Fold:
Amino acid sequence: MEMKVLIVLAHPEPQSFNGSLARLAEETFVTGGAEVRISDLYSRQFEPDEHARHFSQRKNPIRFDVQTEQRFNHHQGTLPVDVTREIDDVLWADFVMLQFPLWWFGLPAILKGWMDRVFAYGALYTGSHCFQAGVCRGKRAMLSVTTGSPAEVCAHNGQEGDTQLILWPIHYALHYVGFSVLEPSLITGVRGGYAGNDAAIQDRYLDTRLLEQRLRLTNLDSIPVIPFNAESDWNDRRKLKPRAPVYSPFIRHQAKLLLS
Ligand SMILES: Cc1cc2nc3c(=O)[nH]c(=O)nc-3n(C[C@H](O)[C@H](O)[C@H](O)COP(=O)(O)O)c2cc1C
Structure:
């Protein structure tokens, strides 16, 4: 059966490197026989701020509670049309790739807002439909991220901090709604402003990264899935059991981080 791929692109400029990466991904997946949809958030002018104005129907017209209104409107079939379109695409896809530049050590606001609005309570998660029982279980997701800083500066001991760690909350949100999350594609040192020979060197550098990306996307099955704690690792107060494995500094046994 052909794979269904959703590429969510968060970049204001189609000619950017992120734009190139989204087009490369589309081409690569289509060549591999997949069906591809692209959600280009800027060209769709996706409104990232969750707000009462998006809801024509309200369970509580006096006080706007986001989760209450998301769940109510999902059940009524009155979620905003832009959100419904994105949810349909997520539910349609087997593989979701989020393509974005690292902005201020996180997601561009438009993509954060996409998560706030599209991962709607009742539609993509509830208290009992999350993690291993998540709505998106059986689907895979992957972040494809570019940074301006070079690799050594995005490393565990680099001045920009460890980019892999910085991505943890985004990975955890995807895990929360049920995705199996693949190790991210991280392309560092993506910056313009070069002239002359330096510009030519940078162009060659980026061309090589594009070739590597094509190879990576052609071999999705060889990309490791990021491990998270299993259901059986939590006690009945949702705390980590004493002998449960630890996969990141964010969920650990010792309160104090052992830093050395
Ligand atoms: C608002 C903003 C914030 C940024 N924050 C970071 C950052 O935290 N770390 C970093 O390495 N680069 C940062 N950058 C640089 C971008 O990551 C870089 O320009 C981008 O990855 C290049 O891809 P593009 O050519 O597709 O835009 C930032 C750029 C902008 C515009």
